[in-house]
Structures are given as structure tokens and as C-alpha cells.
Amino acid sequence: MVEPLINGVVQHIKNGDEKAVEYTLITVLNGVSYGLLLFMLSSGLTLIFSMMGVLNFAHASFYMLGAYFAYTISTWLGFWAGLVFAPLLVGGLGALVERFGLRAVHRHGHVAELLFTFGLAYIIIEVVQLIWGRLTVPYAIPAEMDRPLFTLYTTTFPMYRAFMMVVALLMLGAIYLLLTRTRMGLVIQAALTHPDSVEALGHNVPRVFMLVFGGGAALAGLAGVIGGNAFVTEPAMAATVGSIIFVVIIIGGLGSLVGALIASLLIGLIQTSAVALDYSLLSVVNSLGGQVASDAPFYDLLKLSIAQIAPLLPFVLLVLVLVFRPKGLMGTRET
């Protein structure tokens, strides 16, 4: 089975399909790296929702704080210190938010919790602008990883992208081992469905909630540390990824880590593939010998390329999932 596949790839290369192979491989790698970054963001939000039933609107703000904390620490102690301490700082801040803010409004219901996190997101943005300003900060990729990992024909794949993938996979493995192989993980899973029983056994369920919320914030902070320099670190970065995070967890299924992983990779591959495709319905019609006048109805819509509508594709997928599978790909809760 493997030999015919290898022979087929070799034959394609011999036939002059190097560009297709180059585009496919680089696009898949970029899509997977971006998808794993989305999973790092959505995993924390998924854990928080699974345990507390709260859709934390401030979750993307913790991602932003992770990037800014890492930038500040890296200017003093270097990138690797920021990679360690920034998520811890964000996680500690998240634990304080749960203990002295979210827990106080919990008795008023989920609407109050949503409004609290919604307001918190705006407060964090204003604080960030007061401390670091409104402009982009020069949070750079570490010099030892600011180089190509390999070159395929004419396209290079950055080493830092590979580092992002490794960190995300290590985080995924750590979450799996924590939830399935440790006493704390067993307590967390039991508290999801039987909090009263867990408390009757002597465990402090509110403290477990605080740790989970802080851990979810730390995961968002870790994503900010490795995503802030790969993309951009600015006050608008939280709003940029905030909507995509909710798309991921709804498509994957609210409360499902496996679903969040699948949805993250799917969206990463879709968006990365789409931005490189300069095809439109108008170009397809022209290639088939048809002609569309510039004053024809919906002409402007027909000439939109796939690359131009790439930011809309995750939301189109969201609509389709809600229509045909409201629980999401792997979810158990109705969305």
C-alpha cells in the first residue's frame, strides 16, 4: 500500500508537478501549525466551560496578556524566561479573577457571569493600552529560531512554526496525562458531573474551580507567548482571535477537547489553504469560455476570490454545523 503511494508521488514530481507538491506540503504544515495554536487557545476555554458552564468572553484577553507579559519579560531575561513565567502570571491572574470576581457573581446565574467576563475583557484591553500603548510592540522571534527549518523547491518553512507545533503537542499530551493519570485529574472529571459527591468526599470543589479557571487562563497565556511574536502583539489581537475561538469550540462541540482539536485543525487548514487561492466564480466562468459583463447583476460578488473571502469561511462552516449538527462534531451539549 505504501509503495504505490510513493511511486505516485515520484511520478507526479517527474511530470513537473513540483509546484503542486510544494504548495500542498507547505500549506498543510502552515495550516496544522495555525490550527494547533487555535487549539491551545480553545482548550482552556473548553475546560472552563466543561466544569463551570461559563463561556469566558475574556479568554482571548488572557491570550493578549500572555503575549505582552512575555514581551516584557523577554526584554529583561530573554524569550525562554518569558515562555515559563508569562503563562504562570496569566494563570495566577485568572485564578484571582475566579476567586474574587467570578465566584461572587456565580449565585446570580450564567447571564451575570457572561456579563462579568464581557466587561473584564474591555477592562483588560484598556489596562494594556495604558501600560504598553496602542501601537504594536516589538516582540520578536528568538534569534536562534528565526531561520528556515527546511526549504522545499523555492519555499521555506520557518523553524519557529515547527516550535509552535511541538509546544502545542506537548501541551496536548500534558492535558491528557493530567486528566487521565493523576488524582487531580480524576477529581476534576468527577467535579464536572457530580460536584456535590466530590465535596462530600472532602474535596474543595470551589478551589478546584479556581484551579481550572487559572489553568485555562494559563493555556491562553502560553498561546499568547508563542503566538504573539509569530503574528503580532497589539491591543487588537484579542478581538482578532476572540471570535475564532468561539467558532472552534462550537464547531467541535461545547465541552469537548477532542472536538476542539479537530475543529482547530480543520479551520487552520481551511483558512491557510484559502488565502493562497486566487480563484473566483468569474474566473471559472471565463475559463469555461463564458463572458460576464461588468454591469451584470452580482458582478462584484462573482469576482470575489477565495482568498478574499477566506476570513468568512470559518463562520460559513459554523452555520453549516449548527444547521446539520447543532451539538457540534463531538459535543454532548446543545448549542
Keywords:
3% strand; disordered N terminus; 335 residues; single chain; ABC transporter involved in vitamin B12 uptake, BtuC; globular; two-stranded antiparallel sheet; 2 strands; mainly alpha
How is this fold's topology laid out?
Blueprint: H1 2-14, H2 18-52, H3 59-77, H4 79-105, H5 110-132, E1 148-152, E2 155-158, H6 159-181, H7 183-193, H8 195-200, H9 205-228, H10 237-252, H11 257-274, H12 281-287, H13 299-302, H14 313-324
Antiparallel strand pairs: 1-2
Give an account of the 3D structure:
The protein has a single domain (29-274), classed as Orthogonal Bundle (ABC transporter involved in vitamin B12 uptake, BtuC), CATH 1.10.3470. Helix content is 71%, strand content 3%. It has helices at residues 2-14, 18-52, 59-77, 79-105, 110-132, 159-181, 183-193, 195-200, 205-228, 237-252, 257-274, 281-287, 299-302, 313-324; strands at 148-152, 155-158. Strands 1-2 form a two-stranded antiparallel ribbon. A hairpin with a 2-residue loop joins strand 1 (148-152) and strand 2 (155-158). Mean pLDDT is 81; it is low at 1-10 and 12-16.
Provide the domain count. 1
Mean pLDDT: 81
Provide the structure class.
mainly alpha
Return the CATH architecture: Orthogonal Bundle
- Biggest beta sheet attributes: 2 strands, antiparallel
Determine the CATH topology.
ABC transporter involved in vitamin B12 uptake, BtuC
Strand content: under 5%
Instruction: Specify the helix fraction band.
Output: over 70%
CA gyration radius, whole angstroms? 22 Å
**How are the strands of the biggest sheet laid out side by side?**
1-2
CATH class: Mainly Alpha
Shape: globular
User: Regions with pLDDT < 50 over 5+ consecutive residues?
Assistant: 1-10, 12-16
Q: Number of helical segments? A: 14
The ordered string of helix (H) and strand (E) elements is: HHHHHEEHHHHHHHHH
Total number of beta strands: 2
What distance separates the N and C termini? 42 Å
